[in-house]
Automatic annotation (TrEMBL):
MF annotations from Gene Ontology: RNA binding
Organism per entry: Cyprinus carpio
GO-annotated biological processes: nuclear mRNA surveillance; poly(A)-dependent snoRNA 3'-end processing; rRNA catabolic process; U4 snRNA 3'-end processing
Encoding gene per record: LOC109079875
Domain Exoribonuclease phosphorolytic: residue ranges: 21-64
PANTHER family associated with the record: EXOSOME COMPLEX COMPONENT, EXOSOME COMPLEX COMPONENT RRP41
Gene Ontology CC entries for this record: cytoplasmic exosome (RNase complex); nuclear exosome (RNase complex); nucleolus
Protein name: Exosome complex component RRP41-like
Amino acid sequence: MAGLELLSDQGYRLDGRKASELRKVQARMSVFAQADGSAYLEQGNTKALAVVYGPHEVSASQSDTHLTSGEVHL
């Protein structure tokens, strides 16, 4: 079975980059003013956004030193 050709005969990828070239990377911090922390990262068609709200005080009934909770939205 033939594999997918990732490089041209001249050594270029389909998007015109050489095999050793990376896609452009963009990173920004504090992108959400309402959050306690936030960051944005982009490389090619991949984009990631992280937003943190907290920490918040936890009541004794909610406290469990073995558990941590959080949400990740992609």
